[in-house]
Design brief:
Function (chains A, B): Plays a role in the regulation of phosphate uptake.
Number of strands of chain A: 0
Subcellular location (chains A, B): Cytoplasm
Radius of gyration of chain A: 20 Å
Keywords (chains A, B): Cytoplasm, Phosphate transport, Transport
CATH superfamily of chain A: Phosphate transport system protein phou homolog 2, domain 2
Protein name (chains A, B): Phosphate-specific transport system accessory protein PhoU
Oligomer: homodimer
CATH topology of chain A: Methane Monooxygenase Hydroxylase, Chain G, domain 1
Structural class of chain A: mainly alpha
Number of helices of chain A: 8
CATH class of chain A: Mainly Alpha
Distance between the termini of chain A: 69 Å
Main location (chains A, B): cytoplasm
Largest interface: A-B, 46 and 46 residues
Strand content of chain A: under 5%
Order of helices and strands of chain A: HHHHHHHH
Chain lengths: ~240, ~240
């Protein structure tokens, strides 16, 4: 096989990697904007997040089409094939992160203004900051072929779960204090849950990126994703 | 290419299709058992659902490994390649359905006994029945290469969304009536949301199956997945 063919394959793959990075950047921006629109009750910003999701979907389709065309045209083997299949899977997780950010944005008007007391806003914001850092770090870890960093990321997801459990308890307390808070808090609960789930998708991306980079799969037993189902007992 | 090679490729693909069917059967059984364990407060049954999820994960890995080996070994083109990539995606959605059923099962002890009034149990049960029917139908539609049936399934998901909205409102009312219901109802709310999300994954599977069967993608605009974020206003 000539030099030219090899270079073209790498170029095709490079294009797919750029789409992954674009989707990662968009995912991070959507998480940031959806959380800000929620905490500042900014319905115009929320509307932009909802529109951005169509862009995310289009990019995923473009990546899928390119990846499948690449497999058909180049018939890559072993490590190269793994990179292409890994990219398809990572794109699926990034698209889901976009969906979850959109879902947060769609709840902005239902939550309304001043629904969350200051301490609760801080807790949700802290959780969002952790999630955004993870989204940025997993794309950087993939681009830098940083296997150790990717393992670390998966473990870091535990901290998001801990923060989610704290937000969950805070929301329950706030609902019990005053039944008029229940509707808004229920929506905030789903928003917090969405952030926790975005963390899970980052974990999936880290696992796929690790597989692409090393050719090995991470062990099956990953951290539990939702501690509230076992740590919070019914009254 | 000889008769023998063609037959072997079909045999390999047939094996992958059987794994899809097995995962579909297991997914349906997990949804059924998780809902029953929730409504009958059967912690032993819930524990079995939690164990079954490891089996689901193992099957997905087996399917992924077989699919990637098949692509590398046979280098399928066009329609055949589409079938293999479609199977990888369907398996990912089935695995997520298993995760969601497990999450319902994990909430059984937190919800506790007699937490839901009879009318609410009926509503959740009705929703679960619809979801189980969809899981069964999408696997049958894929196996039968029934493109029209698969389109119909995607549209049927709207009915699950309508039922979810009814359950959501019922749960809010119940929480407002008595704050002591809040913790249990919050967990039930997540269970109902999980059922609604399982419906979304069935929709994804239907879309992928349609692509595999017809070579065409369904139009982008699919039904909204969660009406509660727009139809229920904050008080």
């Amino acid at each position: 096989m000539g030099e030219h063919t090899v270079t073209s394959f790498d170029e095709d793959l490079g294009h797919i990697d750029r789409l992954i990075r674009d989707m990662g950047d968009l995912a991070g921006a959507m998480v940031a904007a959806s959380t800000r629109s929620l905490l500042e009750n900014d319905t115009a910003m929320a509307q932009r997040v909802i529109s951005d999701d169509a862009l995310m979907d289009a990019r995923q389709r473009e990546l899928d089409d390119r990846a499948i065309t690449l497999i058909a045209k180049r018939q890559p083997m072993a490590q190269d094939l793994r990179r292409v299949v890994g990219a398809i899977r990572m794109a699926a997780d990034l698209e889901r992160i976009g969906d979850l950010a959109k879902n947060i944005a769609k709840r902005v008007s239902a939550v309304g203004e001043g629904a969350a007391p200051r301490s609760l806003s801080h807790s949700i914001d802290a959780m969002a900051q952790m999630v955004m850092a993870q989204v940025g770090a997993v794309i950087a870890g993939y681009e830098g072929r940083d296997a150790r960093g990717l393992v670390q990321l998966r473990d870091d997801d535990r901290q998001i779960d801990v923060q989610y459990t704290a937000v969950f308890r805070e929301l329950l307390t706030y609902m019990m204090e005053d039944p008029r808070n229940i509707t808004a808090c229920t929506h905030l609960l789903f928003c917090a849950k969405n952030l926790e789930r975005i963390g899970d998708h980052v974990t999936n991306i880290a696992e796929n990126a690790y597989y692409v980079v090393t050719g090995q799969q991470l062990p099956l037993n990953r951290p539990k994703t939702d501690e509230t189902s076992v740590t919070v007992e019914a009254d």
